[in-house]
Amino acid sequence: xxxxxxxxxxxxxxxxxxxxxxxxxxxxxxxxxAATAKAGKAGRFNLAKALQKGPVVLYFYPKAxxxxxxxxxxxxxxxxxxxxxxxxxxxxxSADDLxxxxxxxxxxxxDKFAVGVASPKVIAAYDVAMGSxxxxxxxxxxxxxxxxxxxVHSDRDYREHVSRTLAAVKAMQAARP
Length: 177
Hints:
- The chain is of the alpha/beta class.
- It has one domain: Glutaredoxin, CATH 3.40.30.10.
- 38% of the residues lie in helices and 21% in strands.
- The protein contains six helices and seven strands.
- Strands 2-1-5-4-3-6-7 form a seven-stranded mixed β-sheet, with helices on both faces.
- β4, α4 and β5 form a beta-alpha-beta unit.
- The termini are far apart.
- The N terminus is likely disordered.
């Protein structure tokens, strides 16, 4: 399907527009440890340890305190209890520095979930680079306890990231024996 889309884009003369890429469903999620902020306090997030507790919703966003990213953080904050009831941990990731994320974790995330510093290595591993800007695309992953990507949603519009990832987590929960 992607090759068909790429062909149509090239035929239309828009070959210079970057294609959206992300890890496919079923791929092994790259394990990482990242500096984080939650409720204004610095911390660390270890994906391998988090997966021992349940699925992880790993959402990448371009830049803290921009309109769409702030609204997306508000939406994830409002749904944090729903994710927790379904056994999932939420982590937002951007290339912002830790000082910025400390403020963002309070003001936009409302102290509800951690946001982490996406290093260039993590950005490359998850295939979420926004061109050469150093920022990330808006891409949300649900990673199952087996360490594999169970769901991915990549869209510049923030509005469906929360509902789609929550639905994926709930479907995983319902499928458990």
